[in-house]
Amino acid sequence: MKIAFSNLACPEWSMEQVIQNAVEFGYDGVELRLVDGEVIRSDMDSAAQKRIVALAKDNGIEIIGIGASTRFATPDAEERDRNVTELLAYIELAAKMEIPMVRTFGGGVRGTSEMKQGDDIQFVAESLNKVASRGAELGIQVLLETHDEFSSSHLVRAVLQSVPSKAIGALWDTHHPYRMNETVDETYENRVGSGTFI
C-alpha cells in the first residue's frame, strides 16, 4: 500500500519542504492543495508547473492529485457553470503536470428554501457529467469527496449513480462521514465505482 498526504496539513511549508519532508517521513506521494502556502491556482504558469513536477520526480515522490475548491450544489446556474469551467481548468492543469486525479467538493446547503430535496444531488451530478468527457480524454479522474454537505456517503453514492463515466469517482474521506455519525463500515459499504478510499 502506498501512503500520501495532502499539503493542506502543512500550509507554512514551501514546496521544497513538502517534498523533502515527504521523503524524510517515508511518504510515497502528495496531494497538492497549496503551492508555497497559497491555494493552488488552475492557471498556474508553466514555469511553476515544471518546477513542481521536477522537484517531485527528482525526489521520487508522486503527486497523486490536485485539490480543487469547486462546488456545485447551488440553485444559481451561473455559479455552477463558473465552477464547471474552473474544474475543467484544473483537469487541464493536472494533465499538463501528469497528475492523475483532481478532487472536488459537492458544496451546498441542504434544506434551504431555494432547493427542493434532491436538487443538490441533481446539480452536482449534472455538473460532473459536464466535465466527464474531458477528464476521460485526458486520462484524469475527478473525485467527489465526502465533505461539506456531501459528507454522507449516501449522498456521494447517489451522485455517482447519476454519473456513468469512469472518469468520475469518489474520494471516500472517512473523517467527514464519521463526524456526521456514520460508521466506517457504512461508508465502506456505500463506496461505488473506482473512487479512492482514505
TrEMBL record:
Establish whether keyword Isomerase is in the entry.
yes
The Xylose isomerase-like TIM barrel domain extends over 20-192
Alphabetized, the UniProt keywords read: Isomerase
Cite a single GO MF annotation: isomerase activity
In Swiss-Prot or TrEMBL terms, this protein is called Sugar phosphate isomerase/epimerase
Per the UniProt record, the source organism is Alicyclobacillus fastidiosus
